[in-house]
Automatic annotation (TrEMBL):
Organism: Zingiber officinale
Leucine-rich repeat-containing N-terminal plant-type domain sequence ranges: 39-84
Name of the protein this chain belongs to: Leucine-rich repeat-containing N-terminal plant-type domain-containing protein
Topology relative to the membrane: Single-pass type I membrane protein
Keywords: Cell membrane, Glycoprotein, Leucine-rich repeat, Membrane, Repeat, Signal, Transmembrane, Transmembrane helix
Keyword field contains Signal: yes
Signal peptide residues on this chain, from the entry's feature table: 1-37
Stretches that traverse the bilayer: 238-264
Localization annotation: Cell membrane
Pfam families reported in the protein's UniProt record: LRR_1, LRRNT_2
Alphabetical list of PANTHER family matching this protein: LEUCINE-RICH REPEAT RECEPTOR-LIKE PROTEIN KINASE PXC1 (PTHR48007), OS03G0145102 PROTEIN (PTHR48007:SF76)
GO cellular component, one term: plasma membrane
UniProt cross-references to InterPro entries, sorted A to Z: Leu-rich_rpt (IPR001611), LRR_N_plant-typ (IPR013210), PRK1-6/SRF4-like (IPR046959)
Predominant location category: membrane
Lineage: Eukaryota, Viridiplantae, Streptophyta, Embryophyta, Tracheophyta
């Protein structure tokens, strides 16, 4: 907008009044003239701020005024915000004790390539709207309290390199489509409540090594299949249940037998004494 406007100003004969007006406007603007005022980034940041709680006041300069112009070209004054050419391209709010939820409006930061909200206390679900972030390369939501499914729509983020969702309370299956993300180089869903088979597209690759190691899937009681043991976990638990059943049956049998014996003896004792 600015680029198209300034040549027009120059093409006019600049009267002193006009120059004064321009200078005044520049002074009155809260941010330098090159600051971006992107309405999508503004919606993204203001809604994200609203959805978060910030008990340690880490986001103290996330003010409404700042949302209107979060970027000065390549720099930002907002904690955790990195800009590229006037647009928010990186959000890194890791380990700030943030609570609340991940706002679906984070999808309004349409140039976002890096979203790291790891090591906080975020609850709620992973908004499927994140899939609108077509440039997203890094998604790190690990070590939070996120619940619900891994949105299958994440498979639409073609440029995803890193998906780290470990140590949350996510449930359901691992969506098959994630295996189609050809750039994925780090994938970690360990220590959640996931279940079902590990998609072969995430587990296998040509050669002898798995595409992602067992450690990427560990700590999910219901997950099975290569590189984890093949549905063996279930067999063990069935055997365990049968074992516990048989064991407790045996114990109660022995107990009741003993009680009956003791009772019979006690009943017999007085009659012996009485004779
Ligand atoms: C906003 O906070 C960050 C981190 O606390 C700090 O680096 C930055 O200078 C602050 N910006 C302003 C304008 O206060
Ligand atoms: C911003 O995000 C919300 C929630 O995902 C969506 O409904 C809305 O259409 C988005 N706005 C723009 C301009 O993309
Ligand atoms: C994600 O964030 C966690 C915690 O901040 C960090 O330990 C981990 O290395 C990150 N994951 C990746 C793949 O960079
Ligand atoms: C994946 O690899 C494992 C171990 O090499 C193998 O047992 C399994 O059949 C393979 N699955 C597919 C779908 O290729
Ligand atoms: C899997 O583990 C092996 C051996 O520990 C390691 O060399 C390899 O880089 C790991 N692969 C991934 C994707 O983490």
């Amino acid at each position: 907008m600015r680029c198209s406007r300034s040549p027009r100003i120059h093409s006019m004969a600049p009267t002193p009044e006009l120059l004064l007006a321009v200078q005044l406007a520049a002074l009155l603007l809260p941010f330098p003239r090159w600051a971006s005022a992107d309405p999508d980034d503004e919606a993204c940041l203001s809604n994200l701020r609203r959805s978060l709680t910030d008990p340690s006041n880490s986001l103290r300069n996330w003010s409404r005024a700042a949302f209107a112009a979060p970027c000065d070209g390549f720099t930002s004054h907002l904690e955790g915000v990195t800009c590229n050419n006037g647009r928010v391209y990186k959000l890194t709010l890791a380990g700030l004790a943030l609570g609340g939820a991940v706002s679906p409006f984070v999808s309004n930061c349409t140039n976002l390539q890096w979203l790291d909200l790891s090591s906080n206390q975020l609850g709620g679900g992973i908004p499927p709207e994140i899939s609108a972030l077509l440039n997203l390369a890094v998604l790190n939501l690990s070590v939070n309290r996120l619940t619900g499914p891994i949105p299958p729509e994440l498979a639409l983020c073609f440029y995803l390199n890193v998906v780290d969702l470990h140590s949350n309370q996510l449930s359901g299956d691992i969506p098959d489509g994630l295996g189609l993300l050809v750039r994925l180089s780090a994938f970690d869903v360990s220590y959640n409540h996931l279940e079902g088979p590990i998609p072969p597209s995430l587990a296998n690759r040509t050669g002898t090594l798995p595409r992602f190691n067992a450690s990427s899937f560990a700590g999910n009681k219901g997950l099975y299949g290569y590189p984890l043991p093949p549905a063996k976990g279930r067999g063990i638990s069935v055997i365990a249940i049968v074992g516990i059943g048989l064991g407790s049956g045996l114990i109660s049998l022995v107990l009741s037998f003993t009680i009956v014996c003791v009772w019979l003896r006690l009943r017999k004792q007085p009659s012996v004494d009485g004779e």
